[in-house]
Amino acid sequence: MNVYLDLVFLLNFFLDSLLLWAVSVVLKRSVKAKRIVLGGLVGSSSTIFLLFKLNSTELFLFKTILSILMVLVCFSFHTLKETLYNLAYLYFISILLGGFLYYFHLEFSYEVVRNLFVSNTKNQNIPILFLLLGAPLILYGYVRGSMKRKKRNTNIYKIELIEGKKKYPYTGYLDTGNKLYDPITKRPVHLLYDPSYHFSKKQKVIYVPYQGLGIHGIIPCVFFDKMVIDGEKELVKVLVGFSKEPFQIEGMQMILQGDEILEDT
Fold first, then answer.
1. Max CA distance (Å), the chain
2. Residue of 226, 210, 228 lying closest to 218 (CA atoms)
3. Domains in the chain and their CATH numbers?
4. In 95-194, where do the E strands start and end?
5. What stretches in the chain show pLDDT beneath 70?
C-alpha cells in the first residue's frame, strides 16, 4: 500500500485550517488569517505519526497535545476558560464534519448487494472530492446557521479599530448599561483591555472620570479614526478608554457603549 505523505499533509492542513476558521467565526474570535494558517500547519504536523508505530493510547495523547497547540498558536492564551472553550468547539466541529464525511463515504464508496455492503471500486475517488468540496460547504452551512442564532441571542460583535493605516481587531460586548461619556467633548467612551497596545506620540490622551458601584477614578482615552462593527457599520472619531484590568466577560477585549452602537440601527 502506497501512502503519499505530501498529499496527506496537504489534506490535513486544508481541513485543520478550515476547522480553525470555523471556530473563529462561530465564537467571534478576532484572529488574523496568518494565525489560522500557522495553526493549520501545527495540526498537519500529525502526518509525522505515520512514520512511527504508536498504540492507540499514545496516538490519542499526541493528538490531544497537538490540538491544544493548534488552539494556542491560532488564538493565543488569554484565560484558561477561553482556551478550553476554543478547544471544545474545535473538537465539536471536528466531530460534526467527520460524521458528515463518514456518511458520504459510506454512501458513495459502498453499494448494497444482497443486503451486504460491498466496496464500489468505481467511486473510490469520491471521498477525496468531498474532502475538497464538501467539507467547506458543510462548514459554511453550519457556521452561517450558528451566526444567525448568535446574532439574535447575543450582544457580541467583531470590532476593528483603525488608526491611520493600522488596524486592530477585537471582540466587543455591547453593554447597554455603559453610559460613560467624556464631560468635555460629550462623546461616548468605549472600553478596551489590550496590554500590548501603546500610545503613540501623535495621539492626544484625554483623561475621563468614571464612577460606579462604589468605585471611581480616571481612565485614559484616545480617539481612533474609525471603528468598524461586524465589517458593516462604521463609526468615525470614536473615543476609546483603556482599562487596566481584563473584563469579567469571557473572550471580550472591548465593552461597547450602547448609545453610539445602537444609534441608527
1. 83
2. 210
3. 5-153 (no CATH), 156-262 (2.40.70)
4. 110-113, 116-119, 156-163, 166-175, 189-192
5. 1-6, 50, 98-154, 212-214, 261-265
